[in-house]
Design goal:
This protein has 190 residues and is α+β, with helices and mostly antiparallel strands. It is built from 4 helices and 11 strands, in the order βββββββαββββααα. The chain folds into 2 domains: 17-46, no CATH class; 49-184, Nucleoside Triphosphate Pyrophosphohydrolase, CATH 3.90.79. It is 18% helix and 43% strand.
Length: 190
């Protein structure tokens, strides 16, 4: 359940009709009046939102090496699809972090939410988790992915994000953060 929307979010109109249901992406069409009074069919994609977590433990950031059969291993932040209808974005972030790393944190705040493409009804949420509480066994998708948990300094993470630049690490976001103290001081988005 979406509870937080980015500024200037472009959403699929309520009168739109789903014309294709995919595994991740659905396609919607709707008639829309244009400035000259004529109408045209418009189209957009919809997919589940994504959450990622910058989890700070012992002054380092928790990162995962994610291997899936369809692509080479990638470094990424813990997270995943917000595809449980009854969960808030924060609930999803906590669940995904726990599933992938087994870690639990006391303090959470949303530090970024954005819509990268106006033709896709999809938001990306980035949370900051601090005050490590404990560790359980991870519960990863057996057979579907191999996850290796690691911890990196902020500088190491920024170097990896700069070298990788493929969307799996928040390169643009990290460029503006100079230290762990800067990261911890980021304001919460409401």
């Amino acid at each position: 359940m979406r509870t937080i929307f980015p500024k200037n979010a472009v959403m699929i109109p309520k009168n739109a009709t789903r014309v294709f249901k995919g595994i991740i992406y659905d396609v919607y069409h709707w008639e829309q009046e244009r400035f000259d009074g004529s109408t045209a069919t418009f189209e957009a994609l919809k997919r589940p939102d994504t959450v990622n977590v910058l989890a700070v433990k012992n002054g380092k950031i928790v990162v995962i090496r994610d291997e899936q059969p369809s692509r080479p291993p990638k470094l990424t932040l813990p997270g995943g699809r917000h595809d449980v209808a009854t969960e808030t974005e924060l609930d999803c972030a906590k669940r995904e972090l726990h599933e992938e790393t087994g870690m639990r944190f006391k303090n959470w705040k949303l530090v970024s939410v954005k819509q990268e493409h106006t033709k896709i009804d999809y938001f990306y949420y980035l949370f900051l988790a601090t005050d490590f509480e404990g560790q359980d066994e991870p519960h990863v998708d057996q057979g579907g992915e191999i996850i290796t948990v690691m911890e990196m300094t902020l500088d190491e993470l920024k170097q990896k994000a700069d070298a990788q630049r493929d969307g799996y690490l928040p390169y643009e976001f990290l460029r503006g953060v100079q230290s762990i103290d800067d990261l911890l001081a980021l304001p919460e988005i409401h």
